[in-house]
Amino acid sequence: MGAERLRGVVALDGPSGTGKSTVARRLARQLKAGYLDTGAMYRAATLAVLRAGLDPSAAAAIPVAVGAVIEVGTDPAEPSVRLGGEDVASEIRGERVTSAVSAVSAHPSVRERLVDEQRRIIGSVLAGDRHGIVVEGRDIGTVVAPDATLKVYLTASAEVRANRRGSQDRRAGRGGDQASALVAVQRRDALDSGRATSPLRPAEDAVILDTTELDVSGVLTALRALAAERGLVEHGQRGHAP
Ligand code: DC
User: Fold this and answer.
1) How many domains does the chain have?
2) Which of 42, 141, 215, 221 could form a disulfide with 105 if both were Cys (CB 3.0 to 4.6 A apart)?
């Protein structure tokens, strides 16, 4: 690979199963940028609420989610998520967290807290050795980084997204059939798009990219072309250290 590097922020939003995480990580690796998985932060906050034995929609869940000590790594080669110092990367992908995360992420003060933290992380990556970052989530282009030079909203049909989520779950040994994957994807879409605070929706200036007919490399090619078009890709010396 050459010495192409990303400068600035790429905001990648969209519902579950659009291939967001895979392409966000790969894009960040290819362009020697940082990577931030904001969904992992909402998931870790949700795990804190569940471990406290609280109802995720109840007001009592708010201080626990807001007070959770969450650390996320920004190296796309090894993303990490810690809750109170414990590695929870695998536990936050399980069914228990997945079905409760929309309720926890609908609390405005939980969002406020995590959005502040996300902005802080983005700022520190941009000020460090990597001058670019790919940030994935639901409200990156609308709320977290409204000034991002490139905002992409990934979509795909609910059936294709459920298929992708289902195979991802089976690969991770979480089982589950296609029909229930479809129901779960549709339920989470409805909750994430219907909430009052920062609902899932494309930013007005986002490029909408439908991935129904595209594989991962097709999506990456499209994203790299968009990033280059916006002047976000620097061509450094070959072999220049990241
Ligand atoms: O991307 P994911 O499936 O890991 O996200 C988990 C949930 O977190 C998703 O259902 C909604 C919420 N979320 C959010 O509200 N805002 C974000 N920026 C990222 C995720």
Assistant:
1) 1
2) 42
Question: pTM (2 decimals)?
Answer: 0.92
Q: What range does the domain containing 116 cover?
A: 2-237
Among 189, 192, 193, 201, which residue has the most ligand 1 atoms within 8 Å of its CB, making it the best to mutate? 192
Q: Are 139 and 59 in contact (CB under 8 A)?
A: no
Q: Which pLDDT tens digit goes with each residue over 182-213?
A: 888 888 888 888 889 888 899 999 999 999 99
Specify the residue with its C-alpha closest to ligand 1, atom 18.
Answer: 137
Task: Write the secondary structure of 34-78 as one string of H (helix), E (strand) and C (coil).
Answer: EEEEHHHHHHHHHHHHHHCCCCCCCCCHHHHHHHCCEEECCCCCC
Q: Which CATH number belongs to the domain containing residue 91 in this structure?
A: 3.40.50.300
Write down the residue that tokens 């639901």 correspond to: 138
Ligand 1-lining residues (CB < 6 angstroms): 16, 38-39, 42-43, 101-102, 105, 137-139, 188, 192
Residue 242 lies in a domain: no
Q: What is the mean pLDDT of each run of 10 residues along the chain (242 residues)?
A: 86 92 97 98 98 98 98 96 98 95 96 98 94 96 97 93 82 79 87 87 95 94 97 75 45
